[in-house]
């Protein structure tokens, strides 16, 4: 009996696995075989389009000869929807749209038994008599090149369903596909890093057996191997006929695209207004106007520049943080953004500029130099490198081959404390970093991380030893002496339990004394942090429901140094977890989206030990660990043990997919409850409501 059950299960699994993609069924076709369906769809559709197509008189009078390319969908309801028409004549574009609107409904394509959208390309040669006869299609499918999206998006077939009967036609189809509304999708630019965007992208990466998600941001060219980015956005397009309607709801504000170069210009906004429960100000707000310029020269060289002009006033606890951590000659430090001057009443004026150049000379290498941020890990937080601090200049080299992705990053950072500035110039520090990601199996990824922090002295800048791209920095740091640098190493893992569920970990080691780990002494120099988390996509079989849980713990004095300028921080903010050290934290996140609508909920809860009575208990990484409270008996949460609870709820509507501009509203509740309420660490219960319009291109971190 048990063998019969096994046989039935094997047969059932093979049947289920065999249910991959099936072409749409057009009129006059049947479902006898997939090859017959493909050829019949191609032949009958082409025949009907050409029979109805009428070449406009203006085109005929010009004796025009050429090809127009129509990119269209057969939707999951069987409708024909034109996505894009490439033609030298507006009249031909209008005629193509008219003809496709008249086509009869088809039976939609399916994937694993579910109706899906499927995209096609049809070249129409003018004059019509020169159109070649469609031929038989031979479909070749490999598991690696099937791009599967969630049911609210679409599936791109691995081969073009329309036959390519000549090199000219093939070139026209390729040109039409590349000349999309979004030329950046085929570029070497970075996809702007926001958690809401990357939580979705990571799902598509995880469907592939040899992808790497541990170093962010991702390149567009890298991501396009796993998901049809064009179709994700065009499927959301609103049907607008006016030029300004299209630019408002669907497209880039300004785009120029030629055969060997392109660029786009977009105005960006982050306009918010709200109110917290404090009596210090009547309202909170943020007023950001920005411009973003992106482009490419040739196939391998791209550039991006974003300039933000901002003024804002935030919830009271955020304003207090900004003023308490103000850099030299400033009014404050806006979290994650940077230095600010005073603006009107208790407000901050904080300009930000980010830009970079990116070059990919071959499929193995990418070089970037610019001013921005990076992120290491698969979690909401990172103990290795987060984007919670301000932007910084950096040089990055990414190398990818076989099962390996290896990233070198060199960063120029600033210690902006007034006590270390010279002639009103902040102290310069440097970080050299390696991240090696290796896919051990189809499901298991292991990564190694190391970073070395050095400072500028009168006689040296960035130590040449740290420019070696393949080296263990700990040896260099040891050879130069403890005041010559600070080294941090780490280990990360990711395991894909299934296509919809994955787990991840990080272990970061600042310093360790092996003989005193388990002796119960609580030795101060055992400085490390641990992260454990899990992600669940399409949770409980609900499409586009995303769940994440994460636990972080960092021991006292981790990331600090005897010389505070060598700590693991930049611009008065940690480079790792924004809580610094001496804490534990649990994060729970839920996200859901439907078409252009979205919603999210996030909870942060934990405890952190703050310094008290002038004593360094290991929670402030800008304090020298030489001033510690002792060598032994060092415990987690020592000092002023503070309970922190933050709940954040947001929802909204995507206005423009080209710039990820959203209308949103949100409410944040924060409860900050120290064991001893003192001036620097007071009890605070904040409720902050805000709404507005913003381009969601980076992460705000107000959960501290």
From TrEMBL:
It comes from the Bacteria. InterPro entries: Wzi_sf. This is Gliding motility protein RemB.
């Amino acid at each position: 009996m048990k063998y019969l059950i096994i046989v039935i299960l094997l047969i059932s699994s093979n049947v289920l696995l065999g249910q991959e993609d099936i072409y749409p069924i057009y009129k006059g076709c049947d479902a006898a075989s997939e090859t017959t369906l493909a050829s019949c769809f191609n032949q009958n559709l082409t025949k009907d389009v050409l029979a109805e197509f009428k070449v406009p008189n203006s085109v005929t009078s010009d004796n025009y000869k050429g090809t127009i390319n129509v990119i269209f969908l057969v939707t999951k309801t069987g409708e024909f929807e034109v996505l894009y028409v490439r033609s030298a004549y507006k009249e031909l574009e209008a005629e193509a749209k008219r003809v496709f609107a008249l086509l009869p409904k088809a039976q939609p394509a399916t994937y694993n038994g579910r109706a899906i959208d499927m995209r096609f390309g049809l070249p129409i040669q003018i004059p019509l008599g020169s159109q070649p006869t469609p031929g038989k299609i031979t479909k070749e499918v490999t598991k690696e090149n099937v791009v599967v999206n969630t049911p609210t998006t679409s599936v791109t077939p691995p081969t073009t369903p329309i036959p390519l009967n000549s090199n000219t036609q093939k070139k026209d189809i390729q040109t039409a596909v590349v000349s999309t509304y979004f030329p950046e999708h085929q570029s070497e630019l970075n996809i702007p890093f926001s958690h809401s965007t990357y939580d979705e992208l990571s799902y598509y990466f995880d469907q592939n057996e040899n992808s790497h998600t541990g170093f962010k941001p991702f390149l567009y060219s890298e991501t396009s191997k796993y998901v049809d980015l064009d179709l994700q956005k065009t499927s959301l397009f609103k049907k607008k006929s006016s030029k300004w309607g299209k630019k408002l709801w669907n497209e880039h504000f300004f785009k120029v695209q030629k055969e060997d170069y392109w660029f786009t210009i977009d105005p960006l906004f982050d306009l918010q207004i709200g109110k917290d429960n404090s009596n210090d100000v009547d309202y909170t707000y943020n007023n950001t106007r920005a411009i973003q310029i992106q482009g490419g020269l040739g196939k391998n060289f791209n550039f991006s520049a974003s300039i933000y002009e901002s003024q804002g006033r935030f919830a009271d606890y955020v304003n207090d943080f900004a003023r308490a951590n103000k850099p030299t000659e400033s009014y404050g430090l806006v979290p994650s953004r940077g230095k600010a001057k005073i603006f009107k009443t208790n407000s901050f004026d904080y300009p930000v500029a980010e830009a970079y150049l990116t070059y990919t000379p071959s499929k193995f290498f990418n070089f970037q130099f610019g001013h921005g941020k990076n992120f290491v890990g698969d979690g909401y937080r990172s103990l290795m490198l987060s984007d919670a601090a301000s932007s910084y200049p950096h040089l990055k080299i990414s190398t990818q081959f076989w099962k390996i992705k290896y990233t070198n990053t060199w960063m120029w950072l600033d210690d902006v404390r007034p006590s270390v500035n010279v002639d009103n110039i902040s102290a310069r520090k440097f970080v050299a970093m390696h991240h090696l990601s290796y896919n051990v199996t189809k499901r298991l990824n292991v990564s190694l991380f190391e970073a070395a922090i050095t400072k500028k002295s009168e006689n040296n800048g960035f130590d040449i030893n740290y420019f070696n791209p393949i080296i263990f920095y700990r040896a260099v740091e040891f050879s130069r002496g403890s005041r010559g640098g600070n080294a941090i190493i780490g280990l990360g893992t990711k395991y894909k339990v299934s296509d919809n569920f994955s787990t991840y970990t990080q272990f970061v080691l600042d310093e360790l004394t092996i003989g005193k780990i388990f002796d119960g002494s609580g030795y101060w120099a055992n400085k490390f942090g641990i992260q454990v988390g899990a992600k669940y996509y399409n949770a409980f079989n609900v499409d586009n429901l995303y769940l994440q849980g994460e636990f972080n713990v960092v021991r006292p004095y981790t990331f600090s140094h005897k010389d505070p300028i060598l700590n693991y921080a930049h611009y008065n903010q940690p480079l790792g977890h924004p809580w610094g050290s001496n804490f534990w934290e649990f994060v729970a996140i839920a996200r859901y989206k439907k078409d252009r609508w979205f919603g999210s909920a996030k909870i942060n809860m934990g405890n952190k030990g703050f310094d008290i009575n002038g004593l360094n208990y290991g929670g402030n990484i800008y304090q020298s660990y030489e001033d510690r409270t002792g060598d032994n008996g060092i415990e987690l949460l020592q000092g002023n043990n503070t309970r922190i609870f933050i709940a954040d709820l947001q929802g909204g509507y995507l206005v423009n997919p080209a710039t990820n501009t959203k209308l949103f509203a949100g409410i944040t509740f924060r409860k900050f409850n120290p064991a001893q309420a003192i001036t620097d660490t007071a009890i605070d219960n904040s409720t902050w409501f805000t709404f507005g319009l913003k381009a969601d291109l980076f992460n705000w971190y107000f959960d501290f």
